[in-house]
Amino acid sequence: MSKTFPRGCTIFNCDRRHGNYCCADCGYKKTCQRPCKNSPEKCGLVRPQASKKKRGRAMTKLGIDLETYSSVDLTKTGVQPYTESPDFRILLIGYKLDGQPTKLIDLGEEEGQQALTLLPPEMSTIPEGSLDEFLLMLTDPEIIKTAYNAPFERTCLERQFNVTLPPEQWRCTMVQAATLGLPGTLAQVGEALGLDKQKMTEGKELIRYFCKPAPDGHRRLPSEAPEKWERFRQYNVRDVDVEADIKGRLARFPRPQAEHDAWALDQRINDRGIRIDTGLLEKALELDKQYSAQLRAEAKRVTGLDNPRSDAQLKRWLAGRGVETDSLDKEALPALLESAPDEITRRALQLRQEMGKTSVKKYEAMQRALCQDGRVHNTLQFYGAGRTGRWAGRVVQTHNLPQNKLKDLALARQLVKDGNFEMLEMAFGSPSFVLSQLIRTAFIPSEGCRFIIADYSAIEARVLAWLAGEKWVLDEFAGDGLIYEATAAMMFHAEKNDIKKGGPKADLRSKGKVATLACGYQGSVGALINMGALKSGIPEDELPGIVKRWREANSHIVRYWYDVENAAIDAVQGQPSTLAHGIHFECEAGYLFITLPSGRKLAYFQPELRPEPQYDKVGLTYMGKGQSGKYTRQKTYGGKLVENITQATARDCLRDAMTALDAAGYRVVFHVHDELIADMPFGKGSLAEMCEIMGRPLPWAPGLPLRAEGDELPFYMKT
């Protein structure tokens, strides 16, 4: 909605603003508060081509790249606070229409940006290469806008020119590259594809110079360094050209329409944002500051050190008391506490341990990312997990929040909001623990609304069993769904009822649980340990037997690992093949493609077979991002491929559920793994309906038993 034009939307064609856009084509027409009442047929101001889809030929595409300035650190806040800074401005606009030469609009002058003439759409004498020409193309619904990391360009342009740019009219080349298993940055993709034109290497230095404040805080103007500015202009043009080359190279691998629709929905969800309880946020930071100061003061008294948080100082102090250690990290401290020679040493170590728990990084991230509307935006990264296409968390990182273990969260958060820190510590103990428990609760619904939270139940285990044809698991999910008890019963030849809580063999449940979570993707003893087998009290010498029992009980899944690996290797050798549920393996143009039941494809770039003498076989490798973040050759195998396929299929279930919920009027504001959070007014929607929608059979997954469960809450939490 426009702040400038009280009539309503800035892109109403009948307002003669920004040319040829009609409400009938607007992606926001469902949520607009003041939509146009006319139909395209009745409106005499709509250009004929504005409301008619151009069928039978490709849509015109406009490639865009921006260079911008803001004193806000984009990497720490996300794009919304970046653009809300009073000094935000677009410096350069590079754009390319289809195969035409790249044009550049220079807006870097001191006196501000060029004024817009806001020409009516019927005028045809618009200067070529002008800002007016660009804006008319930008707001034309018949032109698809593309960019590398399109959410940035789209948000910056909306903010600068006070227009609404529906995401349905945009395509993100970065997402397209990610779907093909290519690296993340424009420069890396260009290098991986061997493009003739590559991103200019001096770009980072030029961005630091013109796009960020100088040491004294002022914005460096083009006139201060005209030669640098000319190089910056060339850099912007080159980025447009590189993006266009990448787009052209990847065009032979189109994405399904469902993925375009999902990306547009993802953008609307990020635009919507999540409301933050600013009262809780401020008091949480205040409490942490007070408690941290208290701990530091006591640590100084106990140790006599100037800085008891210094590893070097504390190690020397401990050595003087007979305690030698190479590490003071959280893994080492429990053992040091057990072997402490006296109470003073023990207390110093306890204080060090407690100081390590007082991190409020999530609260600080919320504070940095908080926007003028009291919400945080862009917390989701579409196709953030390159191997599977799953979403990743950004800005606040909602995907790795602590699980709630505090019984009375409502009381704890109220004591924090009231600033009653003394009572809080008396009632709940360590403030650092309480603050970690309250992080999720800082996300709250809009005024007059509540959260409806629904989570897919054991979706990966369901998908894996469905893909592999493990019938007894599917039957269990079709029944009461007690998969941990059922797995333990199969492994140990016991009655399931005996393994339920309170039963004579209830201790077996933990073994069934850890095996279910760890063994599905060819995991062995190491996977059990990583999943917490030892912490749950299972002796290490029992772990090999648990692996063996699980594999015997799930023989179809075990066979599926090898079927998938063999199919992938055959495809690399030029022999395409198809497994159950339409899982298709084929190599094309330097990619191994695995087609999922949904029709979406996983891609492995530059696959190669390499000998593995230790296993007396050949192994599959591909180019991808490793754990170090570097784009290098990676090894894979049957279990890992099955994990990718399973997680990707579960992701597509979530995608289709979000689409169905959106159509039903549910305002999803974020999601965490397999959990969806909808911000709904009281009296609209229900948990039962939301779970029913998520559990509906999918046309591309017949026989897959889906189930969701959750709650309606006044704040976000997870138990």
Describe what you observe in this structure.
With 719 residues, this protein is α+β, with helices and mostly antiparallel strands. It has five domains: 1-52, no CATH class; 57-254, Nucleotidyltransferase, domain 5; 278-444, no CATH class; 449-458 and 648-713, Alpha-Beta Plaits, CATH 3.30.70; 471-553, no CATH class. Helix content is 41%, strand content 15%. The protein contains 27 helices and 20 strands. The strands form five sheets. A six-stranded antiparallel sheet has the order 12-13-14-15-16-17, covered by helices on one side. Strands 3-2-1-4-5 form a five-stranded mixed sheet, with helices on both faces. A four-stranded antiparallel sheet has the order 18-19-11-20. Helix 10 packs across helix 15 and helix 18 (459-468) packs across helix 19. It is globular, with a radius of gyration of 29 Å. The two termini are 38 Å apart. 42% of the residues are buried. Residues 1-21, 44-57 and 111-123 have low confidence and may be disordered.
Helix/strand layout:
Elements: E1 60-69, H1 74-77, H2 79-84, E2 89-97, E3 103-106, H3 131-138, E4 143-147, H4 150-161, E5 170-172, H5 173-179, H6 186-193, H7 203-211, H8 226-250, H9 257-272, E6 274-276, H10 278-303, H11 311-320, H12 333-338, H13 343-356, H14 361-369, E7 375-376, E8 380-381, E9 392-393, H15 409-417, H16 421-428, H17 431-438, E10 443-444, E11 449-456, H18 459-468, H19 471-478, H20 483-492, H21 496-499, H22 508-518, H23 525-530, H24 543-553, H25 555-572, E12 577-578, E13 584-588, E14 591-595, E15 601-612, E16 617-625, E17 631-636, H26 638-663, E18 668-672, E19 675-681, H27 687-694, E20 708-713
Helix pairs in contact: 6-8, 7-8, 9-26, 10-13, 10-14, 10-15, 18-19, 18-25, 18-26, 20-22, 20-24, 25-26
